[in-house]
Amino acid sequence: MSVTEAGSRSGGVPAGQEDREGREALVPEIDLRTRIGPLELTGPVLTASGCAAAGRELAPFLDVAGLGAVVTKSVLRAPRSGRGTPRMAETPSGMLNSIGLQGPGIEAFCAHDLPWLREHGATVVASIAGNDVEEFAELADRLAGEPGVGALEVNISCPNVANRGLVFACDPDAAEAVIGGVAEAVAGRVPVLAKLSPDVTDIVAIARVCLDAGADGLSMINTLLGMVIDTTTLRPALAGVTGGLSGPAIRPVAVRCVWQVHAAMRAGLLRPAPIVGIGGVLTGLDALQLVLAGACAVQVGTATFHDPSAPARVRVELGEALARRGFTRFADAVGFAHRSEASTLPGPGTGAAPGTGAVPGVVPRPAGA
Known about the structure:
Helix content is 25%, strand content 19%. By secondary structure, it is of the alpha/beta class.
């Protein structure tokens, strides 16, 4: 079986499965199922927003139905051409992008992208962005009612045009307003994930206002603001001057952010909620770091630019890594590094099943909360 078929719909990693080099995966059956609130996923590895549009580009390399979910490129109300070129710059262990949320707009997305995803059996997490609270709420209301949309990821790391370019996720009041507006518009129809920026002094404080405003979970982290200067032209390498840093270079920051927020949940400082870990995932062991820190799912993004099969490959590698460390269920590994007995190998029943409420990363939000 090839890696493009990784992860059967039952949620396990089949024993004897081969990876893309033809090596037999030395793993037993691993239960990779997880939850984002009420949304059950057959596996914990998702694509990351912005790296493969709505997933169609990955179809020649993997089965989108075999992924935990496809997270779409952020959708806006109207078509948008994005920023001027050059838009991308390579950096050590990563890259800068300054795409500027280019996209066809909500009508084209619903007419062309969503039907394709439904036809191919993909679980869809639709990412939305907006210029103001009203646009976010309008998009959320529309997409929450579209067949096939399993959850919304709210990209609050885009600029707030109504407030002189302020990034929503970097200001507690702005973040609260957007998430509150989206939660009200969605009215519990699908889970709402707030996508947080690492460019803040206290990410736990931002997480708190988002959860208090009605977010069902958190996606962490978005790119870090960075800059490259071309030493030949003596000018900024990007037309937009600054851009978002992604790739393996930011993984330690992502792990730290997930750790801090999950620790706050364990300490009772935040309401327990699912955390989707994002940032620098290139291998299954990279994904495992985020899981051990507290993520109940992970996203793979920049890695797909040089390996379009990366999300499926990471799923296989993550299953192998879990099995070799004594886990039989993915859910048991969520936040395991926080346990006082984490130095010992896990055995059966060391964690809670998804949705039981004992593992903060995977509990569904209580009805009416």
